[in-house]
Amino acid sequence: MTTGSGAGSGPGSGSATGFSPDRGPDPATGSGPDRGPGRSRIRAFGLRTRLLLAFLLVAAVSAGTTAALTYREARNAMLQTAQDTAVTSFRDQVQQTAFGLPLQGGEDLEAVLRDIARKGKPHPWVVFAEYGSIRASSGENPVSTVITPELRRAARANPHGSFERVVKDGVPYLTIAMPMVFKASPDSVLPSGLVLYAVMRMTDEQVNVDALLMAARDGALPGLAVALIPGLIAARSVLRPVRELRRAARSMGSGRLDTRIPVRGSDELADLARTFNESAAQLECSVRELREAEERARRFASDVSHELRTPLAGMLAVTEVLDEDADHLDADTARAVRLVSAETGKLAVLVEDLMEISRFDARAAELNTDEVDVAEAIRKTLHNRHWSDDRIRTELPDGIRARLDPRRFDIVIANLVGNALRHGSAPVTVSLRTETRSPSPPVLITEVMDSGPGIRPESLPHIFDRFYKADAARTRSAGSGLGLAITLENVKLHGGTIRAGNPPGGGAVFTVEIPLHAEGARG
Amino acid sequence: MRRTRTRRRARAVAAAVTAAAPLLGACGIQETDVIEAGGPASFQAFLNRDHDMLLFFRSPDGGLSPVIRTTEPSAGFGDEYVEPGSADQNSTDTAGPVPTEKAVLALLAGPREEDRAAGLSTSLPATRPGGTVEVEPPSNGKVTTRLPLALQDLNSTALHQLTCTIAYSHNTDGQVVVELTDQDGTSRTGTCGLAPRNSGEAPAEPGPSTR
Amino acid sequence: MDPDPTDLTITEGEPPMPRVLLIEDDPSVREGVGLGLRRRGHEVRAAATGEAGLAALAEFRPDLLLLDLMLPGMNGVQVCRRVREHSQLPIIMLTARGDDFDVVVGLEAGADDYIVKPARTEVIEARIRAVLRRLDDSGPGRQGRPAIEVYGELTIDRVALTVSKTGRPLALAPSELKLLLHLSAAPEQVFSRQQLLEHVWDHSYHADARLVDACVRRLRGKIEDEAGSPRYVQTLRGFGYRFGPL
After folding, report:
1. Domain co-membership, A405 together with A507
2. CA angle, corner A108, sides to A106 and A109, nearest 5?
3. What rounded mean pLDDT belongs to chain A?
4. From the CB coordinates, do chains C and B have 3 or more pairs under 8 Å?
């Protein structure tokens, strides 16, 4: 779709106008769509980060759970094995030992206990013997501080081997109680009242458990790192369509309504792309309709003024004849003839202004710049309009040269001064100066200030509207009602700005700012 | 809106932490309860039924502890110094198990020094020397023993000591019903029940029943 | 601005008023403009088409051609070229604003000036007088200088109003001749386009500078050896034009 190709071909105007209307709505605001790149591509909690975090979390939880469960099972199995080994070997050891009854304490007993302790599996243990009031051990203390009363009670109450894991001062111990029986006959045993205890530090088991834990952690961490890869891939697969969508949206925003997104796959993102494309198509359609309607309206205005112009050309040529001969007619006819003559003139001005406006609307207005002495140009304008009397004051420093369209600048100045004289009151001051505001190029500032009551505040926003009447009571002004609108368009064509205001000193002031070397707003 | 969202998120985090806590807390080695692991250990006790007798004394925790006593008093320090054969020859009695009367008399004589050294004691009263013990031949798995004691004066531990000593003297398994009678005619009947086979039930009660 | 029809008669000794051929397809414009001009004493012949106008040219022998650009059949630009093939008759185009491109084409084809429709008769009359005005009094400091001036291969006769190059006479349209005479009257002096509009065309200061540019291009095509690198009519970018230096 070639936007605006029709807009350039106003009736009768050639297609070789110097600028293309396709250049965008307004170069002054052209930086709008490019605000995006300022933002950093990686946001703190952007989609990518969140996806990665989610992946990491899932991986961490699963790895952690697996590791923990594995660890627990392995640890339990390991401890089980250690305990069973210990209990079994303890029983085997003590069964190979002989004791007399009653047991006799002292060196002999301790020697026997030390002998048992030495053969401990998987590690040496400390063996305690309790019989009657005898307390003996293979270690230094005859009574263990680790063995709990519960274990003692269980050993005494039940003729069963039993063990208990105890953690004392952060050190885990395995305590085994073994009630001793002896054979009273080949097939019956009798509790002897002797209970042997074994106490074993589980430090090695602790080390093993720590190693297991370390292994689980070392396995989990690389697992997490590996989980990053599918995370990144998933993020990419989601983010790429999102990025495409963003690019397309920005492209649409900058006016390329024919932007479409390739639809891939059949997931939600593809649905989104499809919806986007449908919306874009509808938008393009509506915009095209709007443009066509606008184009028709513009063409209609242009055609109407064109068609009005031809009869007007004939009429205007003969108004002189009417004016001359009116004197010889009777009074009523003479008044009628003069009325027709005068209104024909106004009609001609109105049609000319309408033509000018429709050419601006069609972006067919051309800027024919020339380097001129601005003060001289303004003086010529005032002189040509016979505004050289004391109604006009000028502050025009010599030597300011600017590149502008003299004919259009003449219209701007003439419209502003004429407007000031009609709606404000004399004296009207026209002043000129230049200003340099880095980094923008130097500008030419022209001010037209009147001495009237100023512009009513509620009128200010509409002062450049077409056919806007600041004073509702005034049915028709001497101008066409398009003067300020045409002025605005001419200033914009120069790439400049115009604004109206009421300075503190009273009156109204119109300020025109044009780049000193205007190459055309669209050129 | 935002606050509820934050709160919901906080709750989710809390839930995750709660779920993870047992897993994380299971690190290291924990304490356990007392866990049974197999039966008791049996050891060699040098019991020779031919001239050894089993006497039951009271241990400091209130239970009964068997003590092996050889019938050869000159043997002094037990069985190590006595060859089974020589003991047989030196015996005043005929070969065979130590008579129950002898065992009961030994029990009534109380713990010796080595027994006392191990903290063993007896609940039986000291008896006058020369008291007689009569053991009737067993009939129907029941052994009746007449004692030179007043049974009423004895507590349950004392009765249990007597019952077990008589039972194991009579029967290597101790599986026999023992009836005790005194001069007054009072009698008590019971079993020893110290063997681990009965461990499921309350052990060591002599089950004295007054007739 | 008061027209003075007697002026030309006295000074030039020519027929009282210029004869005007008007080629215009729209009857009301044709009649209105004709009426206004006749009223001012012009002898006017009107033609509805380019072909009819060209046919009337030889017979009517006008002093000036008023030519509408938008004509059915043969259009104004084509008529303009046909006339320029063997005549330096002053030509003023009638055009409508908005037809900017056509204005340029018309000017390139040899028209001397243009009028934007609709226009009052007094405006048309003023343009006609300006195009027909003789230039013998123009230029500063003319007194005491010879009538015939030679610049390189160019010979300008200010009395006979002829220009020749290497002895061969050149056919210059009135606006081209006036521009050359004005520029060469003060060699090496720079004239801005606005100044040339005022002095050569009697336009306002702010009129269409393309008039000057188009005329300069046509003039260069006739007097320069190479139009791309002019010797006689030189451009000073940003300021305007000057004659020489050679």
Report:
1. yes
2. 70
3. 80
4. no
Mean pLDDT to the nearest integer, B29-41: 80
Q: Which residues of B fall within a CB distance of 8 Å from A134? A: 117-119
Taking residues C149-159, report their average pLDDT.
88
* Yes or no, beta carbons of C28 and A311 under 8 Å apart: yes
Residues of C in contact with A380 (CB under 8 A): 194, 204-206
CATH number for the domain that contains residue A398: 3.30.565.10
Report angle CA C147, C151, C154 to the nearest 5 degrees. 90
**How far apart, in Å, are the Cα atoms of B130 and each of A133, A212, B144, B158, C38?**
32, 73, 20, 20, 188
Q: What is the mean pLDDT of residues C101-111?
A: 85
> How far is C-alpha C54 from the chain's CA centre?
19
- The CB density around residue A184, as the number of other CB atoms within 10 Å, is 24
Residue A266: pLDDT over 50:
yes
- Both tokens of residue A207? 């080390």
**Confidence band (pLDDT; 50, 70, 90) for A27?**
very low
> What pLDDT shows up at residue A488?
94
The reply to whether B202 touches chain A by the CB within 8 Å rule is no
Task: State whether A497 and A374 are in the same domain.
Answer: yes
Q: Please choose, from the candidates C203, C223, C41, C8, the residue with its C-alpha nearest in 3D space to the C-alpha of residue C113.
A: C203
* Distance between CA atoms of residues A242 and A248, nearest Å: 10
Q: Which residues of A touch B46 (CB under 8 A)?
A: 98, 100
Name the phi and psi angles at A431, rounded to 5: -125, 160
Q: Is the pLDDT of residue C101 over 70?
A: no
Q: What angle do CA A367, A372, A377 make, to 5 degrees?
A: 95
Verify that A340 and A379 share a domain, yes or no: no
A340 with A412, same domain: the answer is no
- Residue A260 maps to a domain: no
> Same structural domain for residues A332 and A374?
no
pLDDT band (50, 70, 90) for residue C24? very high
In this predicted complex, what is the ipTM?
A: 0.81
Dist. CA A514–CA A497, nearest whole Å: 7
Name the residue of chain C whose CA is nearest to A12's CA. C99
pLDDT at A18: 38
Contact B160, A155 (CB under 8 A): no
Quick: pLDDT tens for A192-243.
Answer: 888 889 888 877 666 677 777 777 677 777 777 787 888 888 888 888 888 8
Is residue A88 situated within a structural domain? yes
CB C43 within 8 A of CB C19: yes
Residues A327 and A183 in one domain: no
Residues of B in contact with A79 (CB under 8 A): 29
Query: Do both A174 and A309 map to the same domain?
Result: no
Amino acid at B51: H
Give the pLDDT confidence of A331-361 residue by residue, as tens digits: 999 999 999 999 999 888 888 888 888 888 8
How far apart are alpha carbons B197 and B188 in whole angstroms? 24
Domains of chain C: 6-132 (3.40.50.2300), 148-243 (1.10.10.10)
Q: Which pair of tokens denotes residue A84?
A: 């069973």
Q: Is-contact A434 A516, C-beta < 8 A?
A: yes
Range of the domain at A311: 302-361
Choosing among A50, A79, A190, which should be mutated to test the B contact, i.e. which has the most B CBs within 10 A? A190
Whether residue A131 lies inside any domain: the answer is yes
- Specify which of B19-28, B96-105, B125-134 reaches the highest per-range mean pLDDT: B96-105
Question: Same domain, yes or no, for A74 and A113?
Answer: yes
Domain count, chain A: 3
Q: Is residue A459 part of a domain?
A: yes
Instruction: Count chain A–chain B contacts defined by CB atoms under 8 A.
Output: 200
SS3 category, A289:
helix
pLDDT tens for C230-241 read 989 999 887 889
Does this model's pTM top 0.90? no
Judged against a pLDDT cut of 90, whether residue B205 lies above it is answered with: no
